[in-house]
Amino acid sequence: MIPHDQSVEDGSPGGAAAGTPARAPDRRVAILVLGCLMTVYQRCIRCIRATWGATARPNVDIFYVYGGQWAATSEEMVDISQVIGQPAPALADGAAWVGGDIILCGATDVRDGQPDCILRKRLIAFDHLANRRGYDFVYTVCATSYVDVDRLARYVAGLPATGVYHGALHVHDQTGYPFVSGASLLLSRDLAGELADSAATILSCYPETLPDDVVIGHFLASRHGAASPAEIARRIGGGLKATDNETFVMPYGDGSTDFVMAPAFTHVPNDRGYHYHFNSRRVWEMENFHRRFFSAPAR
User: Fold this and answer.
1) Helix, strand, coil: what percent of the chain each, to 5?
2) Which of 53, 143, 274, 286 could form a disulfide with 48 if both were Cys (CB 3.0 to 4.6 A apart)?
3) Which strand (E) or helix (H) includes residue 155?
4) For the domain bounded by 26-293, which CATH number is listed?
5) pTM above threshold 0.85
6) Dihedral in degrees, nearest 10, Cα atoms 287, 293, 297, 299
7) What digits encode the pLDDT tens for the residues 87-116?
């Protein structure tokens, strides 16, 4: 379990060496689940806590991020005090309150009034996890995710320590920007920290309605891609290797399996993937997946 450490922070948006075997315990990984106070996503997070998030593993910690400003109390949303176990703190823009495995951000929780709140939540959490806690990798997923944590740890153990931006690759229809899907996005500490440090620039330079993962993709392509963003997008669209470095890398062919619309009988693990995407309205399918393939004492 993660020690309960309450604090208010100013998080304002503002591979192994050759010949040396990689060892999983050397890599500290923070799994960041994008939380939401809507009841359907709270059910998903309770499912995560009861399934793949229930077992502690060395050097892997799981965190849940929420927006803590202007928290709605409609019938479709739970009160934030039920999530953190105390009255909601007053949070300035970009600040963070941290309690145990909860990161409460100075941003709204849903897009009403702040269309870029998801981007803000991710950037604030990146600052806490990469810059302040010093995790080697930040792996961020949506709340409808099932993560095979053991396979994720083995995958990360073989990666270089810097420059990593991995996940399912896409090209945004409207802008033509290349990006990694935010449903399953792996960043090394240097890139996660740079995103956090550049938050003020990012928030001011991109339209607030542009999806958060698209913004992150274009920003990293502009700074770290081995080719221009347009060339990276062209390569992705053509099914080619996107870059000559560790940005825009599709792990194990895709790394993520989409079960959102797939019938339940097709929900089986693949040989090397570590992420499975489920439907938020059918959370019991994630529970059954865990019971069938991951809850046995020995796999």
Assistant:
1) 35, 25, 45
2) 53
3) helix 149-157
4) 3.90.550.10
5) yes
6) -150
7) 989 999 999 999 999 999 999 998 887 999
